[in-house]
Amino acid sequence: MTQSRSKQTRTFAMLIVTAAMITTTSGCSMFKKETAPQATTKNIPVRAIWVTRYDYKTADDVRRIIDNCARGGFNTVLFQVRGNGTVSYPSKLEPWAEQFDYESPGYDPLALAIEEAHKRGMMLQAWVNVMPAWKGPNEPGIRNQLYFKHPEWFWYDRNGVRQPLNHSVGGKSRGWYVSLNPCLPEVREYIVAVFHDLVARYNVDGLHMDYIRFPNEPVVAGEKIPDYPRDPRTVELFRRATKQDPDQNPAAWKNWRTNQVNQLVADVHKMLKDTRPNALLTAAVGSVPTRGLTHFQDGLRWMDDGIIDHVYLMNYTDSVPKFAQRFSPWIMSKSDAKVVPGLGIREQLETKHGAEIAVAQIDVAYNSVQNFAVFAYASLFDSSNEKFTRQTNPEHEKRMIRQEHILPKIQSLAQKR
Fold first, then answer.
1. Which domains are assigned to the chain?
2. pLDDT value for 354
């Protein structure tokens, strides 16, 4: 950051006051076609949107998505191409995604998205889930997936039981991600190889890492998650490094696991700068650092160590003051890394009220750091996504209301460039 720490403190205090008092005015026009943004650089404010792997199936879907994002005033698309050890581009390392029935859809979604984005002067970052290697409740439908190819790379508890695909407590059941073990050097090497293949072959403007942490949160209410990973090889690696057992020094055990994730980020950063020096390495991180550390994620350390270019704060809250308050530890960093506050469109709120909160949070983010990211595309635009939002007429009407209130704000900021 170029601001002095005292100036940052004053700026942050003003933001808290502004957030507490802010009122929003609704946009008066529906979705408008705007001139596409000019080519962006590292110094241009970020107006980003997350596009999930569930939002597209056909080539026309991809073209429509990029066009909607450009006309909506966004200049950065976070386009998801890896969800859980399957991908949305041709790869010799991992199979096609289950969204495409594990087969080529007859086009290259990533190549097309890049082409369409660059035609409109937009940046496109390839969004990749890092740790998840499959998602339950069922096993993969093909045998050449990581779940079958490398079972030794997954999480095991102290009794040698593999992390389950399905979680059940008190009659409630839910399938969830099963994850790779980043404490194993061969796993880190594999992940870096997958990302190297991607950035070496595609002219992406950035690699956006999600789930760059341990997904060790309870899946079903009341569930107690084992202390992963406790396989013999991981425990032995810890013993070699510390001369202790995990139970002897829980704090060292936690720090060691955090450092394995840190090492993975450093390895990806080096690979990216060696392979595509002008591309950005960005990461979605928890907006409260202490919570991130419970998942062995230390985003502030990545900033301080200079191994991340942008941090995208997953700052999902209904409270505008709380949204602003969570910036504090990030903007106080002396790092040159850019802070991009991410806001979630709160679908559980009354639609117009939720849109007004989103506009207020965009104002706070822009006034603080000039950057923001919106989660997610399917909350603003119709798509093939039935995973996060229903594609019904009532839901379509809600999206139109959100467009009417939110997009004019983003379009107005695009005109300030």
1. 5-414 (3.20.20.80)
2. 97
